[in-house]
Amino acid sequence: MAGDKLISPFWSPSRHLDRRPFLQVRGAITRALRVFFAEQGFAEVETSVLQVSPGNETHLHAPRTLIMRPDGSRARRYLRTSPEFACKKLLAAGEPRIFEFARVFRDRERGDLHLPEFTMLEWYRASAPYDAIMADCVVVIARAAQVTGIGTFSFRGRTADPFAEPELLTVAGAFERYAGIDLLSTISGSEGDRAALARAAAGKVRVAEDDNWSDIFSKVLVEHVEPHLGQGRLTILFEYPSPEAALARAKADDPRVAERFEVYACGVELANGFGELTDAEEQRRRFMESMAEKQRRYGEAYPLDEDFLAAVAAMPEASGVALGFDRLVMLASGATRIDQVVWTPPVDETLSET
Question: Do 197 and 211 touch, CB atoms closer than 8 A?
Answer without folding.
Answer: no
